[in-house]
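Anyone up for a design puzzle?
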């Protein structure tokens, strides 16, 4: 199994930044597709960003709501996934979840059903 542990959440004012980290166990981290999802109270869990690795290059995808503000990256040597969040808005307030999948794909996948490993989540609160 793969264990995912998120950290870096907290309270920040609108316009501020946070960097989320996801520490992952497993020696095959570099072969896993990984992503970030978030869930606000009363809402469904939604896609935020995803990253894959193929042919020596990474591919990424972002939800329209975070494009230009969030950046997903990974450090394979440290088995860590990151989400750099800039220009935060109150609408970004949610529990953020790290996800990973051992299922092969040709690119990034944005659906929750694809991911078979999930972290416990970290709270991000953005005040006005």
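Challenge accepted. My sequence:
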């Amino acid at each position: 199994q793969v264990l995912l542990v998120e950290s870096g959440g907290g309270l920040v004012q609108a316009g501020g930044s946070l960097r989320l980290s996801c520490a992952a166990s497993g020696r095959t981290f570099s072969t896993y597709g990984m992503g970030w999802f978030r869930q606000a109270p009363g809402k469904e869990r939604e896609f935020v960003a995803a990253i894959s690795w193929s042919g020596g290059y990474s591919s990424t995808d972002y939800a329209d709501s975070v494009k230009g503000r969030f950046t997903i990256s990974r450090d394979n040597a440290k088995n860590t996934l990151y989400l750099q969040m800039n220009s935060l808005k109150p609408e970004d307030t949610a529990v953020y979840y790290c996800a990973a999948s051992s299922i092969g794909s040709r690119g990034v996948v944005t659906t929750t059903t694809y991911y078979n490993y999930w972290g416990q989540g970290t709270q991000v609160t953005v005040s006005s």
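A detail worth pointing out: The radius of gyration is 14 Å.
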